[in-house]
Amino acid sequence: MVIDAHAHLVKNPDFNLLKKIIADGNLEQVWLMDVSGCGLTTHDFASEDEIIEVSAKFPGVYIPFAYLDLRKTPDDIDRLKEKGFFGLKAYRPEKPYDAPEYFPFYERAEKLGMPVLFHTGMVEKCAKGKMGDNLSFGPTNMQPAQLSSIAAAFPGLTLIGGHLGYPWLEETAQNLYYYPNIYHDLSGYRKDVEWLIKNLDRKCNDGLPTRYFNDKILFATDALCYGEKREYLNILKMINFWKLFLELVGSYYYRWGEKTEREKIFYGNAKKIYDSILKNRGNK
Q1: What structural domains does the chain harbor?
Q2: Which of 29, 33, 184, 231 is the S-S candidate for 161 at Cβ 3.0 to 4.6 Å?
């Protein structure tokens, strides 16, 4: 089975297709990221309410992540949690992620047990006037290294670097190597494949029992339009590509290509995060 740990829902999704996606048996869970708060006009992204509606119709299957709007106040995170969101998605901040004024947001997320997926690295071009005010146009406020101080300050917060952070791949390596609460997903720029081949077998030194980089990488498609037929075909292509790549390249030459190791990327790592967060919430 597969968990898609970084994806988006299309506006006015086809609910029959969403049901079929799971019934087909390729995916067990999809983490849906809301970015409607950015006001982007380049794609027809679903609203907060639509994402919550889908997650309610398919409980435990389509997992809702709310847009973490750093232009608001930390109290908005309480609203999002009460509305039913499982986690948060940070995207296009006006200042770098590790700006001190953003720390109260992360403190609140840690307190509420809400993981945060941070977009890292290259970002889609968007002209002025095509999104909301006081947001960033380029990737410099979303560099992977900016997650490190957040992870250190809030050890109970789960951070996921959305994508592998190209062109700052060595910063991503630092995140995975040293910080136990930072993960990254493999969606996005295909140039990263070269980096994955060379780095998935690297050992972490994050204070936990022996782990390797492949223990902290999540499969994801970053599909823009879950709930749209054409996009579903692209999602299946992406799943097949990564399955073939990890098996046919990995299994012959690398430890990370062994069946049990590559299954961590497709399923096990995301499942551990999800189950751990639910368990910790239950213990509070």
Answers
A1: 3-283 (3.20.20.140)
A2: 184
